[in-house]
Specification:
Order of helices and strands: HHEEHEHEHHEEHEHEEHEHEHHEEHEH
Low-confidence stretches: none
Radius of gyration: 21 Å
Structural class: alpha/beta
Strand content: 5-15%
Largest sheet: 5 strands, parallel
Shape: globular
Bound molecules: FE3-S4 cluster
């Protein structure tokens, strides 16, 4: 792999031991993928340091102790607890304190303690052709597909890339990877953000690791709808990028999206596909204790919508309603009086985490000293196919998937309101 003089200096340790370790890791990664050289990155969305795994936090502290700093604007991914109001989710205090230690390491390294899976709503907005890294698939997909930035689905190497501002040129950093593999003929009009999520889950299962090109939306999808679509595509499949011609830079037509102007495979996305996702994630007759909205972490616009739906109403006794979002968006919403409306209605507005990322996960093996005991839940009502999948897989409890509006109706009435009656 071709390296610059500065890359070589980093490998020689002339820019500190932490950067040498980072560059060694990136060179190993690049060689594994036959990268020809490295690119300069302009943004990094990095590992939070997950408190459920103490070693994770200690690794971030070790880097900060070694003098590591981020060389490019960097945001931190979702965490295992709300680092400020952890009591409202019932998180054990030792877990929250450990998560706060990770925040301390991020501050020392200079990365924003955003603790979110939607850093773009918190102001991190990479632009067309900017190389970047991301540990979160939802961020990778949104940045590739909506903003036209260039990102792979990265692991811990994202932290190393953030430290040295470099990354091996492979995968979605290459033009040839950013071409369509499947044409998706949209023969339905998704009605809500949740419908886009259901559609994405249905299509992602068929596209696998390819690039889906959507043709036939009756209108331009909103940013929140595109976010939900991408998150779900990346959940049922290994999708890292989708294309909506006219939305995804630089594609203006379907023909431009394919190597020879034509797709090799075509898929139909219709109402039956959307319905199949709702049916798949709705356990008939399941009881529930929790209603969740805000997956991916809610934008300011979504919070406005929740407040509109809840103003002057009350969540039913015995039901919890969780709204999850980034701390930045929560702060904006608080200033706008929206958090007060939600809290008056009995909702909990939670930052830094989500049901599947918090101490509810049964598949995690945290240090016993953290006192983590997942609660017994009869079921969770969700408005996102991604959250539904992870609630099933990680929390191991029944799910009921419906639209956002109906999820909130469910929380108020105490009776599940399905998307399709
Ligand atoms: Fe984010 Fe949790 Fe959903 S990490 S994308 S809110 S499953």
């Amino acid at each position: 792999m071709k390296l610059t003089r500065r890359d070589e200096e980093m490998l020689e340790g002339r820019h500190g031991l932490a950067n040498r370790r980072a560059m060694e890791g990136l060179v190993t990664l690049g060689r594994a993928y036959d990268a020809a050289d490295m690119v300069d990155i302009g943004y990094a969305h990095i590992h939070a340091g997950m408190a459920m795994y103490k070693d994770d936090v200690e690794l971030m502290e070790e880097l900060a102790d070694a003098g590591a700093t981020v060389a490019v604007p960097s945001s931190a991914n979702i965490a295992n607890a709300d680092t400020v109001n952890w009591r409202q989710t019932g998180a054990p205090e030792p877990l929250a304190r450990l998560q706060q230690r990770a925040a301390g390491a991020h501050r020392r390294m200079g990365s924003a303690c955003s603790f979110t899976c939607t850093p773009y709503w918190a102001g991190h907005w990479p632009t067309w052709n900017m190389h970047m890294v991301s540990i979160e698939s939802t961020v990778t997909i949104f940045c590739n597909s909506v903003l036209g930035a260039r990102s792979n689905r990265d692991g811990f190497f994202a932290v190393y890339a953030a430290m040295v501002g470099r990354y091996p040129r492979f995968g979605y950093h290459l033009d040839e990877q950013r071409l369509g593999t499947h044409l998706v003929r949209v023969e339905t009009a998704p009605e809500s953000i949740s419908d886009f999520s259901a559609l994405g889950f249905h299509v992602g299962a068929q596209v696998g690791g390819g690039v889906a090109v959507f043709a036939g939306f009756s209108r331009r999808p909103s940013l929140d709808e595109l976010d939900a679509l991408g998150a779900a595509l990346g959940t049922s499949g290994g999708v890292s990028m989708f294309i909506v011609p006219g939305v995804t830079p630089p594609y203006g037509s379907v023909e431009q999206c394919f190597a020879n102007g034509r797709p090799s495979q075509a898929i139909v996305a219709d109402q039956a596909g959307i319905r199949a996702t709702y049916d798949h994630f709705t356990d008939p007759g399941a009881a529930f204790d929790l209603v969740h909205v805000g997956c991916p972490h809610a934008s300011f616009e979504e919070i406005k919508d929740y407040a509109r739906l809840l103003e002057g109403r009350r969540v039913k006794d015995g039901v919890e309603l969780w709204v999850t979002t980034s701390r930045s968006v929560r702060n904006m919403a608080a200033e706008a009086g929206l958090v007060a409306i939600l809290e008056r209605a009995g909702a909990k507005v939670i930052s830094d985490t989500c049901p599947m990322s918090c101490h509810f996960a049964r598949t995690a093996s945290p240090d016993p000293a953290l006192g983590v005991k997942p609660p017994e839940l009869r079921g969770i009502v969700v408005d996102s196919a991604k959250q539904a999948k992870y609630v099933r897989d990680m929390i191991r409890c029944p799910t009921l998937l419906t639209s956002t509006e109906r999820a909130i109706e469910t929380a108020v009435s105490g009776r599940f309101v399905p998307r399709f009656p």
